[in-house]
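hey so i finally got around to running the thing on that chain from the lab meeting. sorry it took forever, my laptop kept dying and i had to restart like 3 times. anyway pasting the input first so we r on the same page abt which one it is
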Amino acid sequence: MREDTRSRIQEIALRLFTEQGYEATSLREIAEELGVTKAALYYHFKTKDDIVASLVEMRLTELEELLAWARERPKTPQSRRELVERYAESVRASRHLGIARFLERNQTALRDHPTLIKIRQRMLELTSEISDPDATPAERVSHALALFAMHAGKWLMKEGDLSEEEIHKACLEVAHRLLEP
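ok and heres what got predicted. didnt touch it at all, straight out
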């Protein structure tokens, strides 16, 4: 029951932060929307920052696991391809897009949030791991863009134009092209 309440708080906070903005949303509003007292909300999260950290912590863990995997592999075309495919699957997770929209709409308020700084650092590390140390600058940029293609496709496609599966396949196709020599 405790985890269910925690998940509901996260869902409601994510929606309100995205709709109203992080700074404009209070813990009181989240508690009211949930139908609990502020004290009950405090049992799970003391601050809005705690909620944000909980929302992005899973993403940070995924990135760290992927980074550890990449560091154990040789820098071959097959490893790069598999890294992009693994990354694509992590981006495909149901909550990722909602969290990405929230972060995009609240960049100014959250730019110095410690957990988000860690995510940016891990992404930079991942873009470094995808290329050989002796890769040309153009190859490094192309390989890094292969990772970001998974995000761009989701943001650039109008809702309803294509299914989630069609967007995913198109993003992977573009990412694979970017990995080619």
